[in-house]
Amino acid sequence: MEEEAQVQQQQQTGNTEATNNEAEQFINTETDQSKPAEEQPTLTLPPPMFGTNGQHERKQDPPPSTFNASNPADVAEAERQQLLPPATLFYDQPGGEEGLVATGDSPSGRCLKATQDIPAKQVVFSDPPLVVVVADKKETKFCNHCFSQMTQPQQCPTCESAYFCTQECFDNHKHTELECPVYKRLRTEFSAVETPIGYACRMMINIVQNFANTQSKEQLEKFYSFMALVSHSAHIDKSPWAHHYRRRCQVVDQIFEQNGAVTPLLQQIAEPYGGMPRMMFEIMCRIHCNAFAVKSVDGNDCGNAIFLKGALLNHSCQANCVLMPTVESLKVVASRPITTGTELTVQYCAANVNNLPRRQFLQQNYFFTCMCDACKAPRF
Fold it and tell me: Residue-wise over 4-25: b if at least 16 C-beta within 10 A, else e?
């Protein structure tokens, strides 16, 4: 609400610089080095979330009234309906402030376009996050659950890799359910690495656990919408990140197996992608290409998030929108008037640098060559 009021105030004063300065760019993962406090308060671990048989205890949706569990055809059809990607992806549903945007296609792929004329400094749409995690090297500064800044972080005594501001946040986060054993193993396996877990791996665990391994139709629709985003997995397979991602996926898959978290439903969902480790790798590739750096409600750089609709915004060095991403939502604001049918674009990197290093950055990190007018202009 405060940011929207700020935008309205800028509309009255005609000052566009404040909005542009507040906007964040994609994948700003460079953060300040932080060290955990020498003495960390310990947290009380809740009872384990797994039964004695190792199977995850989760409620299942009630079957339809016509469902007959003893009929193999009914069982097969129910599984098929759950596993098929929805006909309408989550981000294809109507959205935006007063329906200002719609999905479309462009030379860059899927995109968002204006459905009516949009004045400068108008909030075009707001998008809630699919998943948010604390940024690398910020784990001891911001609560892993509520993302508030901490002065006395409380460390998980088991994995020693998650930090919370209060016992309440620790309990509400359900950290010990599956995160804790995975974090502990990763911390041990990659102790020599500066970031043994990494934000992409944290997000991947969250997405598999909460969106793929569920019988909730709404959650599965969000999962398939996420998996429909661009991945550039063929490029990442040959990149320096490939080994880093694949090794972590193997470890996470092993922990899921050991804790009985790989349900038959999850196995069937992973099968089209080539099994669990490969599906996890594909998830990390999509995170690599679509994650946003976000601020806390206090305005501090604190984390990374996935926004399903925001991920459809393509790059232009002469963008017509700016980003205001927080842990609560992504607000997209028009930086200049936008006419009906025009694609909404943002800057993936700073445009105030020479076009050659700018294009090199985009090619190395996002695997495309920018062909906007600014990049095709003579070098400067």
Answer: eebbeebbeeeebeebeebbbb
Handedness of CA 16, 17, 18, 23 (dihedral sign): positive
Quick one: what percent of the chain has pLDDT higher than 90? 40
In-domain check, residue 326: yes
- Which of 161, 168, 160 is CA-nearest to residue 136? 161
Is residue 54 included in any domain, yes or no?
no
Token reading at 316: 């232009």
Judged against a pLDDT cut of 90, whether residue 205 lies above it is answered with: yes
How many distinct structural domains can be found in the chain? 2
pLDDT (tens digit per residue) in 316-351: 878 899 999 999 999 999 999 999 999 998 887 766
Domain of 281 in residue numbering reads as: 129-290
Show the tokens assigned to 183: 């974090």
Q: What is the CATH number of the domain that holds 119?
A: 2.170.270.10
280 pLDDT tier (thresholds 50, 70, 90): very high
pLDDT of 37 above 60: no
226 and 357 in a common domain: no
Alpha carbon distances (Å) from 209 to 103, 109, 128, 215, 252: 28, 29, 19, 12, 11
Domain match, 137 and 285 both: yes
